[in-house]
Amino acid sequence: MSTVNLGKQHPATYKNLGALDAQADTSAREAGLDPLLAELVRVRVSQLNGCAFCLRMHTRDALAKGESTDRLAVLAAWWESQYFTAQERAALALAEQVTELTVPERRTWDDGSLTDEQVSAVSWLAIVMNAWNRVAISSHYRVAP
Protein backbone atom coordinates (compact mmCIF):
# COMPACT_ATOMS: atom_id res chain seq x y z
CA MET A 1 0.00 0.00 0.00
CA SER A 2 1.28 3.43 -0.87
CA THR A 3 1.44 6.39 1.48
CA VAL A 4 -1.95 8.01 1.93
CA ASN A 5 -2.34 11.81 1.83
CA LEU A 6 -4.70 12.29 4.75
CA GLY A 7 -5.71 15.79 3.66
CA LYS A 8 -6.70 14.59 0.22
CA GLN A 9 -8.53 11.52 1.50
CA HIS A 10 -10.56 13.50 4.04
CA PRO A 11 -10.25 17.22 3.20
CA ALA A 12 -13.01 18.34 5.58
CA THR A 13 -11.22 16.71 8.52
CA TYR A 14 -7.95 18.30 7.45
CA LYS A 15 -9.64 21.70 7.15
CA ASN A 16 -11.06 21.31 10.65
CA LEU A 17 -7.62 20.52 12.03
CA GLY A 18 -6.39 23.72 10.37
CA ALA A 19 -9.21 25.62 12.06
CA LEU A 20 -8.23 24.06 15.38
CA ASP A 21 -4.64 25.17 14.80
CA ALA A 22 -5.78 28.71 13.98
CA GLN A 23 -7.87 28.82 17.15
CA ALA A 24 -4.93 27.57 19.23
CA ASP A 25 -2.79 30.33 17.72
CA THR A 26 -5.47 32.93 18.51
CA SER A 27 -5.74 31.61 22.05
CA ALA A 28 -1.97 31.86 22.49
CA ARG A 29 -1.99 35.46 21.31
CA GLU A 30 -4.99 36.28 23.50
CA ALA A 31 -3.17 34.69 26.45
CA GLY A 32 -0.31 37.11 25.86
CA LEU A 33 2.26 34.65 24.58
CA ASP A 34 4.93 36.11 22.35
CA PRO A 35 4.54 34.85 18.75
CA LEU A 36 8.21 33.80 18.88
CA LEU A 37 7.45 31.57 21.86
CA ALA A 38 4.61 29.95 19.93
CA GLU A 39 7.06 29.17 17.14
CA LEU A 40 9.62 27.81 19.62
CA VAL A 41 6.96 25.46 20.99
CA ARG A 42 6.04 24.34 17.47
CA VAL A 43 9.68 23.70 16.60
CA ARG A 44 10.38 21.83 19.84
CA VAL A 45 7.31 19.62 19.52
CA SER A 46 8.29 18.90 15.92
CA GLN A 47 11.80 17.98 17.09
CA LEU A 48 10.36 15.55 19.61
CA ASN A 49 8.05 14.02 17.02
CA GLY A 50 10.72 13.93 14.31
CA CYS A 51 8.66 15.86 11.76
CA ALA A 52 11.07 17.26 9.18
CA PHE A 53 8.30 19.05 7.25
CA CYS A 54 7.10 20.97 10.30
CA LEU A 55 10.63 21.59 11.54
CA ARG A 56 11.53 23.27 8.28
CA MET A 57 8.30 25.27 8.10
CA HIS A 58 8.31 26.50 11.70
CA THR A 59 12.05 27.17 11.78
CA ARG A 60 11.56 29.40 8.75
CA ASP A 61 8.54 31.03 10.41
CA ALA A 62 10.53 31.66 13.59
CA LEU A 63 13.41 33.21 11.66
CA ALA A 64 10.98 35.41 9.71
CA LYS A 65 9.53 36.64 13.02
CA GLY A 66 12.98 37.55 14.29
CA GLU A 67 14.16 34.47 16.17
CA SER A 68 17.93 34.05 16.35
CA THR A 69 19.83 31.18 14.78
CA ASP A 70 21.69 30.70 18.09
CA ARG A 71 18.48 30.05 20.02
CA LEU A 72 17.16 27.72 17.33
CA ALA A 73 20.49 25.88 17.32
CA VAL A 74 20.29 25.10 21.05
CA LEU A 75 16.52 24.56 21.27
CA ALA A 76 16.90 20.76 21.37
CA ALA A 77 18.86 21.23 24.64
CA TRP A 78 17.11 24.37 25.89
CA TRP A 79 17.45 23.34 29.55
CA GLU A 80 21.25 23.41 29.28
CA SER A 81 21.46 26.92 27.87
CA GLN A 82 20.97 30.40 29.22
CA TYR A 83 19.22 31.59 26.04
CA PHE A 84 15.64 31.19 27.26
CA THR A 85 13.55 33.17 29.75
CA ALA A 86 11.74 31.57 32.66
CA GLN A 87 8.46 31.79 30.72
CA GLU A 88 10.02 30.19 27.65
CA ARG A 89 11.56 27.42 29.76
CA ALA A 90 8.22 26.72 31.43
CA ALA A 91 6.41 26.67 28.07
CA LEU A 92 9.01 24.35 26.53
CA ALA A 93 8.85 22.00 29.52
CA LEU A 94 5.05 21.91 29.33
CA ALA A 95 5.13 21.28 25.58
CA GLU A 96 7.51 18.36 26.16
CA GLN A 97 5.30 16.91 28.90
CA VAL A 98 2.22 17.10 26.67
CA THR A 99 4.10 15.59 23.70
CA GLU A 100 6.04 12.74 25.30
CA LEU A 101 3.33 10.26 26.17
CA THR A 102 4.42 6.64 26.43
CA VAL A 103 3.39 4.64 23.39
CA PRO A 104 3.26 0.87 22.84
CA GLU A 105 5.76 -0.95 20.69
CA ARG A 106 5.26 -0.50 16.94
CA ARG A 107 3.37 -3.28 15.22
CA THR A 108 2.90 -4.11 11.58
CA TRP A 109 -0.63 -3.32 10.50
CA ASP A 110 -0.31 -2.99 6.73
CA ASP A 111 -1.52 -6.42 5.66
CA GLY A 112 -3.91 -5.14 2.98
CA SER A 113 -6.96 -5.27 5.26
CA LEU A 114 -7.57 -1.53 4.97
CA THR A 115 -8.26 0.56 1.88
CA ASP A 116 -6.52 3.90 1.41
CA GLU A 117 -9.71 5.64 2.57
CA GLN A 118 -9.84 3.44 5.67
CA VAL A 119 -6.16 4.08 6.41
CA SER A 120 -6.87 7.79 6.19
CA ALA A 121 -9.99 7.51 8.36
CA VAL A 122 -8.24 5.48 11.08
CA SER A 123 -5.25 7.84 10.96
CA TRP A 124 -7.51 10.87 11.42
CA LEU A 125 -9.33 9.16 14.27
CA ALA A 126 -5.98 8.51 15.97
CA ILE A 127 -4.79 12.06 15.34
CA VAL A 128 -7.97 13.56 16.78
CA MET A 129 -7.97 11.13 19.70
CA ASN A 130 -4.37 12.08 20.46
CA ALA A 131 -5.47 15.70 20.60
CA TRP A 132 -8.33 14.87 22.97
CA ASN A 133 -6.03 12.66 25.08
CA ARG A 134 -3.55 15.47 25.41
CA VAL A 135 -6.32 17.88 26.42
CA ALA A 136 -7.62 15.48 29.05
CA ILE A 137 -4.22 14.54 30.45
CA SER A 138 -2.88 18.11 30.46
CA SER A 139 -6.12 19.35 32.03
CA HIS A 140 -6.02 16.62 34.70
CA TYR A 141 -9.59 15.54 33.99
CA ARG A 142 -10.86 13.49 36.88
CA VAL A 143 -11.30 9.78 36.32
CA ALA A 144 -13.32 8.60 39.26
CA PRO A 145 -15.82 5.80 39.79
From TrEMBL:
Name the record gives this protein: Carboxymuconolactone decarboxylase family protein
Pfam (any one): CMD
Species this chain originates from: Streptomyces decoyicus
InterPro entries the UniProt entry points to: AhpD-like, AhpD_core, CMD-like
The Carboxymuconolactone decarboxylase-like domain, residue ranges: 24-96
Transmembrane residue ranges: none
Top-level lineage group: Bacteria
